[in-house]
Amino acid sequence: MIILVSGLPGSGKSYFAEKLAARLGAVYLNSDQVRFTMSASGKYSFQDKLLVYREMVNQTIRFLDEKKTVIIDATFYRQVMRDLFFKLSKDKSKPIRFINVIADEELIRERLDKPRRFSEADFSVYEKVREEFEEITIPHLTLQSTNDNITLLLNKAIQYISDERK
Question: Residue 57 is part of which domain span?
């Protein structure tokens, strides 16, 4: 199974996706970490971003071939980025689920003021991605992140994934 975790910078998507992967025993792929390993830190043109997403597709293929569930953590702010994984899902006959994590802007600003492990995003990046974020038109689960509701979010996500498996 492929699980895409989407959201704006500072939404809490990475924290959530990492916890969900641990809970499910799934492989966790993070776009910021992949960018770092590709020595592409600081490269954020649309074409640079697509190279990172394509690398995540390649890594996902390897893990799917090993019969693993893969959680991909990225903004997925453009439909073309989502489509890479929906095509993969179809090509590999693997189910795919889409979860979008959101948060109040005040909380996002607070989170982005603190250093984070791999992310270079600050509030100006958040604003740029927010403006360019294309509407999600496919079935998905939206989760509202706060600083104290991770257990609730995980339970909702697991229910969503389980319901879809039936």
Answer: 2-165
